[in-house]
Write a structure and sequence with these properties.
The chain is an alpha/beta fold. The chain folds into two domains: 3-44, no CATH class; 53-160, 2-Layer Sandwich (Alpha-Beta Plaits), CATH 3.30.70. The protein is built from three helices and nine strands; from the N terminus they run αβββαββαββββ. The strands form three sheets. A five-stranded mixed β-sheet has the order 4-3-7-5-6, with helices on one face. α2 (74-84) links the parallel β3 (62-67) and β4 (88-94).
Length: 168
């Protein structure tokens, strides 16, 4: 092969390698998006959103029951009924002096929490109150009047958590 032809072929091959490297390097850096010419960047990709769920069961939920104005033994009946449904027993006692409620009141840290919703569904009528300073561990159930738990109430509940989004 003559020298001039070999030089020409070598130059064409080197230009091809340089062009391929420049092309793939440019795409790897964001393509034309760097200069506002379009390209596939994270901002151009669609956002994928999912709604995770949380399942809570009675056996993982602790309740503390306090008699707050009901007849003697009412808190014990409520605690017995809840533990038969699988709830874990917390404190069983009379409410401190000066605390009286009508019906059933739940003292909770977060009214939207899955555990709160599970305990709330055990009663026909129960008022939910958010309180930082609760009397005992878990969900605090204050009983001022009680007949029976709600029939066919669930032993587990699945709730949707806040939606989470990320680029695809």
């Amino acid at each position: 092969m003559p020298n001039k032809l070999r030089t020409f072929v070598t130059l064409v091959v080197l230009i091809g390698i340089l062009s391929a490297g420049a092309y793939y390097g440019w795409r790897g850096l964001g393509g034309g998006a760097v200069l506002g010419l379009g390209g596939d960047t994270a901002d151009d990709r669609p956002e994928v959103c999912t709604t995770p769920e949380e399942t809570v069961r009675t056996r993982g939920t602790r309740v503390s029951v306090y008699n707050a104005g009901a007849a003697s033994g009412t808190a014990t009946r409520v605690m017995d009924a809840l533990t038969r449904r699988g709830f874990r027993e917390g404190v069983l006692a009379d409410a401190p002096e000066g605390i009286e409620v009508r019906g059933v009141v739940l003292w909770v840290a977060d009214r939207e929490a899955a555990r709160t919703k599970l305990v709330r569904r055990q009663f026909r009528f129960a008022r939910v109150v958010e309180r930082r300073n609760r009397l005992g561990p878990g969900i605090n159930v204050l009983v001022g009047g009680f007949r029976s738990l709600a029939e066919n109430s669930p032993r587990r509940i699945t709730v949707e958590l806040p939606e989470q989004c990320e680029a695809a």
